[in-house]
Amino acid sequence: MDPLLFAPIETLRQRQSAKWRTHPSDVLPLPVAEMDVDLAPPIQAALRAAVERSDTGYPAPMPAMALALAGFAGERWGWELDPSSVTAVTDVGVGVVELLRVLVRPGDPVVICPPVYPPFFDWVPEAGGRVHEVPLAEGRLDLPGLERAFATHPAAFLLCNPHNPVGRVHTREELTELVRLATAYNVPILSDEIHAPLVLPGATFTPLLTVPGAAAVAVSLVSTSKAWNLAGLKCATIVTASPKMAALTDRLPPDTPWRIGHFGVLASVAAYTEGVPWLDQLLATLDERRSLLGRLLAERLPTLSWQPPEATFLAWIDCSSIGAGARDLFFEKGRVALEPGPLFGAAGRDHVRLNFGTSAEILEAAIDRMAKAIDS
Ligand SMILES: Cc1ncc(COP(=O)(O)O)c(C=O)c1O
């Protein structure tokens, strides 16, 4: 099989997406979670064919997308989901907010585990709730802390699995205990599984809905947008596995499925049905990048520390040796843009998040610039 293609920097700079349009052209942008990889060939073909047919009308996601997802989830994770329990939503963010609108009364607490994907802090108040933080404990779910929080009867728990930014893949044992607690205290779980296809060699993903008992308390949100780099096409899915949780999706605004992207549906079907060999190549490449980043950090930036992620193309780097100004130092002196750790919650104060979903050349250049920024 051909090696994965990462576009050269000159081509990347022509991209019009947020990653390549936010910063001046002398900056290497490694913040926002888009990859610099070329689209998987079957997805390119599906989108080209749609353009050739002038097939740019409204989406018709079902049953094709649900069947494609069910086929992928069964093969990949042994998750036998019912295609009729799949609801299309614009993106994971819209899915979470709309579900929270159903679950939350004004001011109700919703539990999240920082450091976590920054919009979690926004989605909860957008739906009228109030964030209740139970920070990760050494990068893992703090199950006793979650039990204490669940005992106060929050409206929901928003799980991130795999967890952005630390890259942790929660184990089946941890998820089993989580489900036990959620059942005991009657707390619905919204499981954001957007990074699930990006679990790297060495770790095993457990879809929450495959944990015994989860069907009655949990809803899962999945999407092709991270693993196949399709965020701009606006298409994701909510999956339920019990009448009780399906009642939540029944209460979503009736026009919800009309608000997705038609190209997102076509691309997602191609990804799940024909894009798996490409995904496997991507994961092998990201595994190499993860090792390369480890070597580069050890050689060039030995005062920084990190725990290599078990999933995602995101590295959570501890810059305590530099202090809270690390992100600005790398940006101003090194012209490398990284995601500022404090956006992920107080625990991210001295951290930056680096996106290694790029070519080895760009990764090496970025670390070189960061090392020179410190030396200066
Ligand atoms: C954990 C997590 N959830 C959701 C999103 C955003 O997904 P969407 O664009 O489908 O709203 C991201 C994007 O990086 C993410 O990391």
Automatic annotation (TrEMBL):
The organism's place on the tree of life at top rank: Bacteria
Top-tier EC class: lyase
Pfam families referenced in this protein's UniProt entry, alphabetically: Aminotran_1_2
Database matches in SUPFAM superfamilies: PLP-dependent transferases
Keywords: Lyase, Pyridoxal phosphate
InterPro entries (UniProt xref): Aminotransferase_I/II_large, Class-II_PLP-Dep_Aminotrans, PyrdxlP-dep_Trfase, PyrdxlP-dep_Trfase_major, PyrdxlP-dep_Trfase_small
EC number: 4.4.1.13
Cofactor(s) demanded: pyridoxal 5'-phosphate
Single GO MF annotation: pyridoxal phosphate binding
Protein name as catalogued: cysteine-S-conjugate beta-lyase
